[in-house]
Design brief:
about 170 residues; alpha+beta; 5-stranded antiparallel β-sheet; 2 helices
Length: about 170
């Protein structure tokens, strides 16, 4: 019993020590905590570059990983509020999850505004990525994606109106 109390006291002191050194700084739509950031740091003036941080967004999403000049940058893990997990290389607040050669999900993070997740699909014969919805577990062109792809197909076939008089 005494040994158990000593263990609890010891681990409580260690946990308290680590929590005291980790500062939490609010920045826009997120709260950043890292032992490498000093409490009260103004991230608008002094951009944070840290090897390890936890960023909690107002919507409940959490990022764990490095920051470079206030941006998610390096190998990290993003857990969205809906439970979806994205893990890998973030570069300047952007992450691309390549499902296969034709489908991908791109994530753009803005610490001030929040997170935008976009599903995209590649249309055969066209070189761009188009907006997609996931229906029944499969990527399908969204209404906007269909419109964009049809306009690009017409333009590539020369069917677009040039507005010229033909003289």
């Amino acid at each position: 019993m005494i040994i158990r109390i000593i263990y609890i006291a010891f681990f409580s002191i260690i946990a308290f020590t680590f929590n005291v050194t980790a500062a939490e700084v609010n920045f826009g739509n997120a709260t950043i905590s890292s032992p490498e950031i000093k409490a009260g740091t103004d991230l608008k003036k002094n951009k944070a570059t840290v090897k390890s941080a936890e960023v909690k967004f107002n919507d409940g999403s959490i990022y764990i990983g490095p920051l470079k000049k206030n941006k998610l940058h390096g190998n990290g893990k993003l857990i969205l509020a809906n439970g979806k997990v994205y893990e890998g290389k973030f570069k300047s607040n952007k992450f691309t999850d390549k499902v296969n050669k034709k489908n991908r999900t791109t994530i753009k993070v803005d610490l001030k505004k929040g997170i935008k997740v976009r599903n995209q699909i590649k249309v055969p014969g066209l070189s761009k990525w188009y907006p997609a919805d996931i229906v029944g577990g499969e990527f399908k062109l969204s209404t906007k994606g269909q419109l964009m792809a049809s306009q690009d197909k017409k333009a590539s076939e020369g069917g677009g109106s040039s507005g010229g008089s033909g003289c």
